[in-house]
Design goal:
By secondary structure, the chain is mainly beta. Helices cover 4% and strands 43% of the residues. It is flat and about 85 Å long. It starts with a helix and ends in a 7-residue tail after the last strand. The relative contact order is 0.09.
Length: 629
C-alpha cells in the first residue's frame, strides 16, 4: 500500500500552476474566448490547450517543473506570445518550479485591420472576379521585394474586403482573372522565393499560378490531357517526353489583356501609394480602375555560327519583378531557330536562349515537389546535347534585354556563344598542404545576379588538392557561393585576376584569363553580446544583428542574427575577422537590416566591434525600442 500511494504524493509535490489573462495590447481590456497554447521549451511532454473565459482568464495545472511558452490566438487579433514586444518579436519562456504557482501573467494581443474597396473598369462599371492582393515589402539579400500577404476575389459589385491583417504598410493591386495565353508547346515554369506546396499543379488554365514552389505547365496542343477530355493541353501531372522541335506555332491573338493595377491607379509598382494599416483600423474606399491593354508578340531567331539554332530553349522573364517571384515562360526554337511569344504585356524583359543549358527546374531536380511537377533532366533542358544529362557537352547561351510597349517586337536576334569555363583552387591560409582539411565536401557555385534559372551554373566539388572547374558560364554578373565549409573554417578571400569577388561580385564578358583562388581561414573569432534596456537591465528575446562594415556589407554570408536568452545574452562563434556593428531591436522584420535604406534610419545606434584572429569580444548593446503604430 505504501508503494501504491507514493505516485500521487510525488505528483502533488512536483506539480506547478500557471495563471494569467489575455488583454488587448497596451491596455488592461480583457479578451475573452482566446485560445491559449502551453508548449514545453525542452519538449518531452505534449503541448496543452485552453480557452480563456469571458474575462480573458486562463490557467494550466499539474505542470512538471520546467520552462514553457505561452501563445494566444483569436479571430480579429494577431497571434501573440507571452513577453512579445511587437508583431515580429519573440516571446519569453515562463519558468515553473515544483509546487510553484506563477500568477498574473498577461498576454497582450494586437487587433488586426481591414482594407476594403471597389474595382471598376474605365466606364465606371463594377468588375467581378478580380484578384485583389495585399502585399508587403520584405527583404532578401539587401533587396526589397513584395510578398503577397492576402488575396481576395471581387464579387459581382466589384467589391473586396481584405480582413484580419496584421498592422503595417501595404501595397494593394488588382488584376482580373484571365485564361493563360500560350501557344502550342509553350511551357511555364513558376518559381517562388520560398519553399511551398505544389499548389496549382492540377489547376485548369486560368488558375492563379505561382503560389509557392515550382509549377511546370506544358501545352501539348491537342489530344487527351491528364485529366481526360479532348483538345486541352496537358496541365501538371505526368508530362510525355518532349517532341522533336516543331515549326512555329499557329497562334490566336486576344484583343486585350489586363495588367496589375496598383493603388491609387498605376501600373508602375514604384509609383504605388503605401496604405498604412493601424491596429484595429478599417481603411476603406481603396478603389481601383483596371487597365486593359493589347497583348503583343515577341518574335525573333536564335542563331549559332550565323545559322538558325534548331531546338534551342528560349525563355523570357521580367527584368524587374518586385514580387520576389521569378516567372519563366519558355518555348523551343523551330528548325530555323525561329521563336514567337504571344500574349506579352508591356514591360521590361530579358530573353535568354540556351542549348545544353540547365533549365528553369534545375534547382529542384530530384525533390518531391519537382517529381510532382514532372520536372526531369530531360524536360528542363539538362545539359547534354542530343542526350540530355551528358556532363561533357558544351553549353551555348545568349541573352538580350527587350522593352515591350504597345506594338509587336520583331526581328530579335539571339546569337549564341559557347559558355565560359573557370578553373580554380581552394586552399587553406598559411598552409602549403591542406591534407588535414576535408576539401572535397565543399561546394563551389556561381549564382547569376539576378538569379536566372536557364543560366544556372552547375556547382563543383574540389578534389583532394582543392582543384575545381566550373563550366557553361554565360555572359553576366555572378556572386560566389561556397557551402559545406569544414568545421572551424571560414571563407577568407576569393580573387580572380587580382579582383576581390566577395565584395564586388564577378562580371564575366569573356573567357577568364586566370584561375579563381579561394582561401579559407582557420582563426575565426567569437562575440558575446548583452542587450540592456534604458534602466541597464538585461532584455530577453530581443533581436540582435551583427553587420559588417563597408566594403564587406554585400557579404551576406558573414552577417549574424539571433535572439537573446533570458539573461539578455547572445553568443556567436566562427566569425570572420573584420570590423562590425552590433544592433539590437525589441521588434524588427526579418532581414530588414540587409537593406541600406532601412539601416539609414538607425545611423549611430549600433555598437562598433572589431573581431580579430581567434579573439573573443564582449559588447553591451542598448535595445532599440518597439513603437506600435
Amino acid at each position: 500500500m505504501l508503494l501504491a500511494q507514493a505516485g500521487p504524493a510525488q505528483q502533488s509535490i512536483s506539480s506547478g500552476v500557471i495563471e494569467g489573462t489575455v488583454v488587448r495590447a497596451g491596455t488592461s481590456t480583457p479578451i475573452g474566448k482566446a485560445r491559449i497554447t502551453l508548449s514545453p521549451v525542452q519538449g518531452g511532454t505534449a503541448a496543452q490547450g485552453a480557452t480563456a473565459d469571458g474575462e480573458g482568464r486562463f490557467s494550466f495545472r499539474n505542470l512538471a517543473p520546467g520552462q514553457y511558452r505561452l501563445s494566444a490566438t483569436r479571430d480579429g487579433y494577431v497571434s501573440s506570445e507571452y513577453g512579445q514586444r511587437g508583431p515580429n518579436g519573440s516571446g519569453i519562456p515562463v519558468s515553473v518550479m515544483s509546487q510553484q504557482t506563477v500568477k498574473d501573467l498577461r498576454i497582450g494581443m494586437t487587433m488586426t485591420g481591414t482594407i476594403a474597396g471597389r474595382v471598376t473598369n474605365r466606364d465606371g462599371e463594377p468588375v467581378g472576379n478580380v484578384n485583389v492582393q495585399a502585399m508587403r515589402y520584405t527583404f532578401q539579400d539587401g533587396r526589397r521585394t513584395l510578398t503577397t500577404v492576402q488575396t481576395k476575389v471581387t464579387n459581382d459589385l466589384g467589391e473586396y474586403r481584405l480582413f484580419w491583417m496584421n498592422p503595417g504598410q501595404y501595397i494593394v493591386s488588382a488584376q482580373p482573372v484571365e485564361p493563360l495565353s500560350l501557344g502550342n508547346t509553350d511551357t511555364f515554369f513558376i518559381q517562388g522565393p520560398r519553399a511551398g506546396g505544389p499548389a496549382g499543379l492540377a489547376a485548369a488554365a486560368g488558375a492563379q499560378l505561382g503560389a509557392g514552389g515550382v509549377t511546370r505547365i506544358t501545352i501539348t496542343g491537342g489530344g487527351v490531357g491528364p485529366g481526360g477530355g479532348p483538345g486541352g493541353g496537358a496541365i501538371g501531372g505526368a508530362v510525355p517526353p518532349p517532341p522533336p522541335p516543331p515549326p512555329p506555332p499557329n497562334v490566336v491573338d486576344s484583343n486585350e489583356t489586363y495588367l496589375p493595377v496598383y493603388y491609387p491607379g498605376t501600373t508602375d509598382v514604384g509609383a504605388a501609394s503605401t496604405i498604412d494599416l493601424r491596429a484595429g483600423g478599417v481603411v476603406d474606399s481603396i478603389n481601383m480602375v483596371v487597365a486593359d491593354v493589347r497583348p503583343v508578340h515577341i518574335r525573333g531567331q536564335v542563331t549559332s555560327g550565323g545559322r538558325g539554332a534548331s531546338g534551342a530553349q528560349v525563355s523570357f522573364y521580367q527584368r524587374t519583378n518586385p514580387t520576389g517571384n521569378l516567372t519563366v515562360r519558355s518555348t523551343t526554337a523551330s528548325d530555323t531557330g525561329a521563336f514567337d511569344f504571344r500574349g506579352v504585356a508591356p514591360g521590361a524583359y530579358e530573353l535568354v536562349a540556351t542549348v545544353n543549358g540547365s533549365g528553369p527546374g534545375v534547382f529542384i531536380l530530384g525533390t518531391p515537389l519537382a517529381n510532382s511537377a514532372g520536372l526531369t533532366v530531360a524536360n528542363v533542358g539538362g545539359r547534354g546535347g542530343a542526350n540530355p544529362g551528358s556532363p561533357n557537352s558544351t553549353m551555348m547561351a545568349a541573352r538580350i534585354p527587350v522593352d515591350v510597349s504597345t506594338s509587336d517586337v520583331d526581328g530579335v536576334t539571339l546569337a549564341m556563344e559557347p559558355g565560359f569555363s573557370l578553373t580554380g583552387k581552394v586552399s587553406v591560409d598559411g598552409r602549403s598542404s591542406s591534407s588535414d582539411v576535408p576539401l572535397t565536401s565543399i561546394r563551389v557555385q556561381l549564382q547569376s545576379d539576378p538569379q536566372i534559372p536557364p543560366l544556372a551554373v552547375i556547382p563543383a566539388n574540389p578534389d583532394s588538392t582543392g582543384a575545381f572547374s566550373l563550366s557553361g558560364i554565360a555572359v553576366g554578373t555572378y556572386r560566389l557561393a561556397v557551402a559545406g565549409l569544414p568545421r572551424n573554417t571560414y571563407l577568407k578571400s576569393a580573387n580572380l585576376g587580382g579582383m576581390d569577388i566577395l565584395a564586388n561580385g564577378l562580371r564575366l564578358d569573356s573567357q577568364p584569363g586566370g584561375p579563381l583562388d579561394i582561401v579559407l581561414g582557420t582563426t575565426p573569432g567569437s562575440l558575446d553580446a548583452v542587450v540592456l534596456d534604458e534602466k541597464q537591465m538585461p532584455e530577453a528575446s530581443v533581436a540582435v544583428v551583427l553587420i559588417p562594415n563597408a566594403p564587406q556589407q554585400k557579404r551576406f554570408d558573414i552577417y549574424r542574427n539571433g535572439t537573446t536568452d533570458s539573461m539578455g545574452r547572445i553568443h556567436w562563434d566562427g566569425l570572420v575577422p573584420g570590423e562590425y556593428k552590433v544592433y539590437a531591436w525589441e521588434d524588427v522584420e526579418s532581414y530588414a537590416w540587409t537593406d541600406p535604406n532601412f539601416m539609414a534610419n538607425f545611423d549611430g545606434r549600433g555598437i562598433a566591434v572589431r573581431v580579430t584572429d581567434s579573439s573573443r569580444e564582449t559588447v553591451n548593446v542598448k535595445a532599440i525600442p518597439y513603437k506600435a503604430n
